[in-house]
Structure formats: C-alpha cells, structure tokens
Design brief:
mainly beta, UDP N-Acetylglucosamine Acyltransferase, domain 1, 6-stranded parallel β-sheet, about 15% helix
Length: about 200
C-alpha cells in the first residue's frame, strides 16, 4: 500500500500527503483531505464540509457584511481543486457531490453598486465602496470547469455542468450544460432519451 502511494505521488509527494492528512485530522476532522497551503479568513462561517477534498492554495474569504454571520455551506463529498477562491459576505452554498475544477472564482459580493438607486461613484476608491451582496447557491452533482467565474445572485441547478472559462451572471437551470461569457445554456438532459440534447 505505502509502496503504491510512493509510486503514485513520488517520495516527497507522499510525505506532503501524510502532512496534509495530519493537518486535516487536527483542523478539519469532517473532511477527507485538505491540502496545504490553504488560506481561510472567517473559518467560523464554514458549515458542513463532510468528506471534503481540496487541492492546494484554496482561498476562502468570509467577510463581515450587513448581516452578522456570513456563511459558506459545503455539502457532502465536495471536491475543490487547486487555486480556487471563494468570497462570502452573505451566503454561498455548494451542494453534495459537486466537483469544482482549478482556478475557479465564486463570490456573492462586489465592491459598490452599479445599478438601481444609490450607485457608486467612479470618483471613490473601489476598496472604500460599500459591499453589495446576493446569495450564491450551487446545487448538488454540479461540475464546474476550469477558470469559471460565478458572480453574485446566481443559482446553479442540480446536475448542471459549467464549461471552462465561463462567466456565470444569471441562474442556470438544473440538468443543463452552460458555456460562455456570459454563460448560456446550450444543452439540457432529456430523461426519456437519457441524452444531452442541444437547444
């Protein structure tokens, strides 16, 4: 067993795996493995994460907003790959069995308001503009491709696939494939034919 792991990861890779497993047992006992390095601000806002697997350089920012307890709710068996950044000022939820590829950005907030009443002025510095947040909800069995950006207020339905490099600005219905910037649904799953069908 150990020899097979060393062949798979290499000697130093196997040593890092042991280190990461020990770290996980101590700090994230519900998780499967949390790989170092990791950056978390506002850890008390994380809920769930049972059997979570992460890649290296996961960054989670749970920051104060107008609400008292911003929450990142992670379902069971979620896999988050390398260099993912999740920003939470209000609420982000990720459903069971969701797979998130590398270099994905998920945020429920932005610096300033750019529509409706009380819009932010370009004469103010962006960091000083009030945060505006809208909940993000990612369903179960979702697959999010590499370099995807998921913006505030978005709901992604169960079983959906978001193609690589897509920018999700609006809700994506369940059991669909969406691609592009902004992301648009190009296929839906037909239960009667057991096939993905172009629309």
């Amino acid at each position: 067993m150990i020899i097979e792991k060393i062949k798979l990861y290499g000697f130093w890779g196997y040593i890092k795996l042991i280190r990461d497993k020990i770290f996980t047992i101590i700090f994230f006992p519900n998780a499967r493995i949390v790989r170092l390095p990791i950056y978390i601000r506002g850890r008390k806002g994380i809920r769930g994460a049972e059997n979570l697997t992460t890649g290296v350089n996961l960054r989670i920012d749970i920051i104060n907003s107008d609400i008292s307890t911003p929450i990142l709710d992670i379902g069971k068996n979620v896999e988050i790959n390398d260099y993912v950044h999740i920003g939470v000022a209000d609420s982000v939820s990720i459903g069971d069995n969701t797979l998130i590829a590398s270099k994905v950005f998920i945020s429920d907030h932005s610096h300033g308001s750019y529509s409706g009443d009380n819009q932010s002025s370009p004469n103010s510095t962006p960091i000083c503009r009030a945060l505006k947040s809208k909940k993000v909800a990612i369903g179960k069995n979702v697959w999010i491709g590499e370099f995807v950006c998921i913006l505030p207020g978005v709901t992604i339905g169960d079983g959906s696939i978001i193609g690589a490099m897509s920018v999700v600005t609006k809700d994506i219905q369940a059991n669909s494939i969406a691609v592009g910037s902004p992301a648009k649904v190009i296929k839906i799953y037909d239960e009667t034919r057991c096939q993905w069908v172009s629309i």
